[in-house]
Amino acid sequence: MLATLIPLFDDKMSVCAYSVFARKENHFLNPGFEGGARYDGAGTIHELEVVSNMGVATLSGGKEVFVPVNQFSIFSEISLQCTVPAGKVVLLMDNTILPEEQFIRRVKELKGQGYKLAMRKLQITDFEPYREILSKCDYILLNHAKIHIDKARLYFNSVYPQIKLCAVNVDTQEEYDELTKDGGYDLYEGGFFRMPVKDSETEVSPLKVNYIELLNVVNNPDFDLTEAADVIGKDPALVISLLEIVNRMALNSEIKSIRHAAAMMGQKELKRWINTAVTKELCSDKPSEITRLVMIRAKFAENLAESFELAMMAPELFIMGLFSALDIMLEKPMREALDMVVVPKNVKAALLEGEGDYAKVLNFIRSYEDADWTEVSRIMVLENMDMDKVYEAYLGALRWYRDLIPAN
């Protein structure tokens, strides 16, 4: 099993829902599934297995999850495959589900059971023939490049006033900005939120400079605990977070100073906590999905270390994941951003040049995040990776993030 989540944003860059995409088989080890991977197991909806195993609290922070169904699986006993509330699940249909009586009847049944419904991959000429199905839908996913949103909005407001319009394939920040300015869509899906920064004239804020100083202290070999504690002392949020952690560790000990707290944690744990806490703070003025992205990416990279025969390098892979969006955090091109912080040379080579063993891990993770299962399968074959271990590595990263930021 492989699975990943794709966020859907509103016009404030807040995540409103996630689409879950899963694959049961390795494409290269099971070539017969090419072009028909969605239909393996016919009535089995593997995405629902993921949702049920993880629960919406861990998987999506309690937000709705879009789950693809096809012309076979829509007739399965969906309620038996899904253990989460029906109202949190959006069944995502496509044009393989035809506007015929058997499908229309089934759509009405599912709506009656409390599931939300969405439609994708329809052409403009399909809107009228699909009238009975669309009248039951809560969302429709539209390719923004192939539609006049003003006309579409008028049409849907008139004919299907209950339906929310979702723009898909929004690949750049410029596209997102233009679409939100026009105001025609309710939700937006695409890779725009993680696009690299090409150039910037902005100065890094003084608070972020303090965070960078702290990163540089702890990412030097054999860093000094006292020096790290003194830098932590400049930021109240980090002080509070550190004291909360240490107080849980030492219930019967009185923490007398920040330096005392740092010494209680020890060099290894303090370094790990600082890298994680500082990354979270660097993302605080960005969409919350950036924090989620880099945190899960970091833990996923660490969890994949053994599969890539890099078990001894797991801590550095964790840092690579955290810093993989450093350009977005600092609003600087990646080369400039990395010049500001101390990072291991292998991390720098992966992030800047796409070279070395770490780059293989990063490229794998990016393909995984995009649900590019063909490329993911190809890499798993080349690296002799076990699919179940990859899946567990991803689920482990989701659980870790849930426990790290429970309020998310």
Automatic annotation (TrEMBL):
Lineage, broadest ranks: Bacteria, Bacillati, Bacillota, Clostridia, Lachnospirales
Annotated coiled-coil segments of the chain: none
Matches recorded under Pfam families: HDOD
Listed name of the protein: EAL and modified HD-GYP domain-containing signal transduction protein
Family matches, as SUPFAM superfamilies: HD-domain/PDEase-like (SSF109604)
Domain HDOD per the UniProt entry, residue ranges: 204-389
Record-linked InterPro entries: dGMP_Pdiesterase_EAL/HD-GYP, HDOD, RNase_Y/CdgJ
PROSITE patterns registered for this protein in UniProt: HDOD
Originating species: Butyrivibrio proteoclasticus
